[in-house]
Write a structure and sequence with these properties.
This protein has 239 residues and is of the alpha/beta class. 25% of the residues lie in helices and 26% in strands.
Length: 239
C-alpha cells in the first residue's frame, strides 16, 4: 500500500490491485472505489497513519462501477461505521450480490491484458455482497468537493459513472478512461461505441486533474490529454 497527495485534499491510495481515492473536506472523507476484496486494511492504514483520521471520517463510499477491483471491499468498509455506499442503479444488483457482472466483449487490444488479470484471478473473484444505500441515476450533485456531479457513462458496465468536481476542475473517470502507456479508452468493455460517447462527454469538461481507475493520475493539464486521446481513438476489433 502507498498513498500519494495529488492536490490539497486529494489522495491516491495504491492497493494490492488497482487504486482508490480519498477526497477530504475538513474532517470528512469521501472514498472513491474500494479495491479488490481484502483492500480495506490498506485503506484504513492510509487514513490512520497518513491522514491521521479515524475510519469514522469516511462519510460516503462511491463505487464507479461494479467490477471486483472497484467494489470488492465496499461491504467491509461500510461495516466500520455505516458509511453509505453509492452505486448507479444499473450496477446495484451486482454490488448487492444479486447478479454477476456481465462479461466484456473482448477485442484484440484487450486479449493480452485480459490474460494477465485472469492469471491474477481477478475476474470472478468471490466478493462479499454490500448494502447499496444510495442508488444513483446520473445528474445528482453530492455534498463534497464543492458540489460533486455524478455523470452516467455506460459502456464499460451499464452503471459506470464518472465524478466531476467543477470547483476544483477534478474528474474521476472510473474505468471509462485509463492511463496505461498513455491516456486511452478503458478496456474490457460491454459496449465500446456507448463508452466512447461517454469519453467524448468527459473530454468536453473543464478539467485540470484526472484520476483514473487504472494508471497514474494527471494532476495538471489533463483536459488536453483527454481530448487528444478521444480524437485519436481507433475502433478495436472484437475477437
Amino acid at each position: 500500500m502507498g498513498i500519494m497527495a495529488l492536490r490539497p485534499f486529494l489522495y491516491q491510495v495504491q492497493l494490492k490491485f488497482g487504486q482508490a481515492y480519498l477526497w477530504q473536506d475538513g474532517s470528512e472523507i469521501t472514498l472513491i472505489d474500494t479495491g479488490i476484496p481484502g483492500s480495506a486494511e490498506d485503506i484504513h492504514d492510509a487514513l490512520r497513519y497518513h491522514l491521521q483520521r479515524d475510519a469514522s471520517a469516511i462519510r460516503r463510499i462511491l463505487i464507479t462501477h461494479a467490477h471486483e477491483d472497484h467494489y470488492g471491499s465496499a461491504a467491509n468498509i461500510r461495516a466500520w461505521h455505516g458509511a453509505p455506499v453509492h452505486v448507479h442503479a444499473a450496477d446495484a444488483a451486482v454490488v448487492r450480490g444479486e447478479a454477476r457482472p456481465a462479461p466484456p466483449v473482448l477485442t484484440e487490444f484487450d486479449k493480452p491484458i485480459w490474460e494477465q488479470i485472469q492469471a491474477l484471478g481477478i475476474p470472478g473473484m468471490d466478493v462479499p455482497p454490500s448494502t447499496v444505500d444510495v442508488e444513483l441515476s446520473g445528474g445528482e450533485v453530492l455534498d463534497f468537493g464543492g458540489g460533486a456531479q455524478i455523470l452516467h457513462v455506460p459502456g464499460h458496465t451499464p452503471g459506470s459513472i464518472a465524478i466531476y468536481l467543477p470547483e476544483h476542475k477534478t474528474l474521476f473517470t472510473g474505468d471509462t478512461v485509463a492511463n496505461e502507456g498513455g491516456v486511452l479508452l478503458g478496456v474490457f468493455n460491454q459496449d465500446e461505441d456507448l463508452m466512447l460517447d461517454g469519453f467524448r462527454r468527459l473530454a468536453d469538461l473543464d478539467v485540470e486533474t484526472v484520476c483514473f481507475g487504472h494508471g497514474e493520475p494527471i494532476v495538471e493539464g489533463a483536459g488536453a490529454a483527454l481530448r487528444a486521446a478521444v480524437n485519436s481513438h481507433q475502433k478495436r476489433r472484437p475477437i
